[in-house]
Amino acid sequence: MQKLSITLLFCLAIWRPAPAPAADTAGKPTLMLPAAVREALENNPEIAVLRERLRVMEARAKQASYLEDPELVLQAMGVPFSNPVDFNKSDNNSIGIRQKFPFFGKLGLKEKIANQESGMTAAQLRAKEREIGSKVKAAYAELFMARKSVEILREQLEVIRSITDATGVRYQVGKVTQQDVLKSQLEQTQVMAQLAVAEEEAVGMEARLTALLARPAPQPFELPSELDVTPANLNNAALEQTALASRPELAEAERGLERAQGMYELAEKNRKYPDFMLGWDYVRMPTEMTKDRYTAMASITIPFSPWTIGRRNEEVAESLAEIRAAKASREAMKNMTLMEIREAAAKVRAARQSLEIYRQGLLSQSDLSFSASLLAYQNSRVEFSSVLEAQRTLKDTRMAYYRAQVAYVQGIAELERAMGKDAAE
User: Fold this and answer.
1) Where are the domains of the chain?
2) Structure confidence by residue, pLDDT tens digits, 166-205
3) Taking the model in full, what pTM does it have?
4) 3-state SS class at 96
5) 187 Cβ neighbours under 8 A, 6+ residues apart
6) Residue 64, SS3?
7) Which of 226, 277, 352, 376 is deepest in the core (most CB within 10 A)?
8) In 264-366, which ranges are E strands?
9) Is the separation of the CB atoms in 161 and 187 below 8 Å?
10) Burial track 384-413 (b if 16+ CB lie within 10 A, e otherwise)
């Protein structure tokens, strides 16, 4: 009986969390969440593509304010066929320059449109940074949960093995039935199966996070023992106001509307006002007494000609349709932003409440319940099924506590993406 009591007391103590073996963590740096986000933003190829595209659009916007290249014109007129390369016998030879000029205001509108397109690309870059940051935080939290599941299941497996050993001893002295031994063995097998699945999930989650960090090869790292669940401001009105002012997708939609309005103004000018070309030629007339002369020229487009006005009208109709589409897109993005803010804030509130419940007593209550069940079973006051139920409750409670941490971090990540800025700012 003394040996049995010692075994059961060991069983009572072993379920408590124990640090991982030193060999498992030696030499592995701890990857903190802010550092992971910074690494992803620096190295992610999708962000790199948009950075380069932004440089392209900025350079294109700077080009828009310039006139088209001038044209240099060389002419030889009236060259006789009998001397096709003797230009001294031609009626006149000339060299001139031509330059196109758009109607007043058109060039400024083209520059405005190009700047809006550049602004849209800049907003896309900020949105992609927010998206990648949110994905990193979600993947980090999922990896944290996967590793915690492995840790908890390993601890529970040791507990079940100890209980199984103790139950076998009690069965040999006739204190319990064979059914209790079989139940404990079945529970051990089930925990082993859960552990195998959890270990595979941890490997997959680590691979996903490594890909988001754009690391060329997996690099071993540790995670902190707890996630940062610093309370955030969850006032819906303040969050919505921040989102409407800061979310990059809304800025992109606003820029898109301004671009469409610029396109409409340009289409109206193209329909109503002509463009010009001015030129000046120096003319050399070898066969005339007055050999040196010049020619000045000016040409004007006729946008309202009967055979072109239809195209100009359709350009105006197209730009008006783009304005309507841009307005609808802006309103849709605004509505989606407000919806995402409310949903994410509700998720964060629920996770925070769950964490408070677990911290204020549920974790300790499940610990005490398992201890009490184990002692009661030792003294033959409860059935073996009560011990197994208390053990499952303890495991589930600890899992749920860490899931609440994960839900909080992921909810904050969703909230920050919807707002367009960090919750701590």
Assistant:
1) 2-419
2) 777 767 766 666 777 777 788 888 888 989 999 999 999 9
3) 0.81
4) strand
5) 160, 388, 391
6) coil
7) 352
8) 276-284, 292-300
9) no
10) bebbbebbbebbebbbbbbbbbbbbbbbbb
